[in-house]
Amino acid sequence: MQYAILCYNDENAVASWTKEEDDACMARLAKVQGDMAAKGKMGPVARLLPTTAATTLRKSATGTMVIDGPFAETKEQFLGFYVVEADTLDEAIAFAKDLAVANPGIGAYELRPVSLFFPNTIAVGSGAT
Amino acid sequence: MTDNAWIGAALAAARPQAVSALLRYFRQLDTAEEAFQEACLRAIRTWPDKGPPRDPTAWLIFVGRNSGVDAIRKSRRNVALPPEDRLSDLDDAEANIAERLDGEHYRDDILRLLFICCHPDLPANQQIALALRIIAGVPTARIARAFLVSETAMEQRITRAKARIAANDTPFDPPDAVARQERIGTVALMLYLVFNEGYSRGHADPAAAQLCDEAIRLTRLLLQLFPAQPEIMGLCALMLLQHSRSPARTDVSGQIVLLDAQDRALWSRPKIAEGLALVDKALRHGTPGSYQVQAAIAAQHARARHAQDTDWAAIDRLYQILEVIQPSPVITLNRAVAVSKSRGPAAALALIAPLADQLDNYFHFHGVRGGLLQQLGNATAARLAFNRAIALANSPAEAAHIRAHLDALSAPALPDPAAAAK
Hints:
The complex is a heterodimer. By secondary structure, chain A is of the alpha+beta class. Chain A is built from three helices and six strands; from the N terminus they run E-H-H-E-E-E-E-H-E. Chain A has a four-stranded antiparallel beta sheet with strand order 2-5-1-6. In chain A, strands 3-4 form a two-stranded antiparallel sheet. Chain B is an all-alpha fold. Chain B is 70% helix and 0% strand. Chain B contains 20 helices and no strands. In chain B, helix 7 packs across helix 10, helix 8 crosses helix 11 and helix 15 runs antiparallel to helix 16. Chains A and B meet through helix 1, helix 2 and strand 4 of A and helix 1, helix 11 and helix 13 of B.
């Protein structure tokens, strides 16, 4: 089955990494993803830009409303996600633990079983990186 | 991010909120800063073994407040500090204070701290130094390097600025709506100065370039506090879009590369993506302001895959809006560059003709004018304008750039100048 690994952390702490720290962390995470990909179990991965750049479309009985950012004053923000194929919860937890070793400190990974998955593709390079 | 580097990141992230809460408590900048430093030292000693607290900011404020009170008491009587293990075991107290932090106070706390740094009595360079030191926590030595002064000189500059602030009472009552809006505007301008300080010299000096990153970080912080302010979105977008071009702004020999000639593959895509998203959401508010329009102009460049794809007519229209919001001969001069691209050099020359008196001592005016005359084939007048520009150049790089145009005047093929569009 598929698990979505949702990454939560204090976005201000992540933003205060130096370029070198960020690059080093990304390289270690790429290694963890590479190991998973070698087993044919790695799905899409995304890192999100800060919540200050976000917009929310709120639905209601009377229609929709576009508002700025997520206003929720949480200590940790949703910063990105992985989708992996894992036979058991333990396997998904093991993957998340590897991520935690590669990117130690505060924050959390939420492991959510995936209900529907469409592996659509968009042109490479249309993302930010 | 190995070992305990995450602690540094957590402390840096907590700093603005923690220092500003401690300032509200102690009402004295030095005491608040020292209390925060003390809390950080304890964090570095205790977090690696005990693990991070659930809410690092609340922990730091609580420990900082205790140590600040102790320091004050100690200076009167000689009372011992509580043992470390008791200070680290803060679960209940932490939940308690975290609840209070989520209240309305902390927005105005951080805004106040930012605002204190922009006191009108302080010259701009002191405002910038103070904001970098106190809010962003940049070490004095690094600020000194960015400003090309000695560490001692920078230390003195910051001390003088603090002394001036201490002599002036900043009201600690929450500001009313009008005062809050004024504070936001003042702080935004100061952050823009920090950015420009880095941007104007960053191509030659990596230490100065870091000021751009700090300015962006502080502007994001302001936007987190006031997430529905289109001008703050515009300011943040403007900084991101301009900074996105930094990797392409100099060639291997350190010479400035103008916008038209930059390798756009080197532009930072994440910064552009964040900047464009911010411009788009700001403009939806339908209340244009100076930062938003400047960001929208920068966005036009960011969206053009190649220099020749640039929509100069759209940029011309945006400059016309900017001329209404913020009339200035320099903006008209910038608009002339867009006009020369969309409607030709003669139209641009006619646009800047009335500015000759006002901008007679402005380097870029003569540079742009010389370029337009050159395109029209008036070599004699172009040479005069370029010579005047060289006499007014602010840096050897600027003078060298104009000299290249002068050299080209004797060559048959005439390149297209865009000195003011960089």
